[in-house]
Amino acid sequence: MPRRSRHHDPSIQQPPSDEETERGRRAERFAHGIYGTIIITALLVPLEDHGATADEVVGAVVGTAFVLFLAHTYASGLGRRIAMRRAPRLSDLGAILADNLPLLFAAVVPTLVFVLAAAGAISLHTAFRAGIGYALASLCALGFIFGRMTDHRLPGSLVLGISGAGLGAAIIFLEAAVE
Question: pTM to 2 decimals?
Answer without folding.
Answer: 0.80
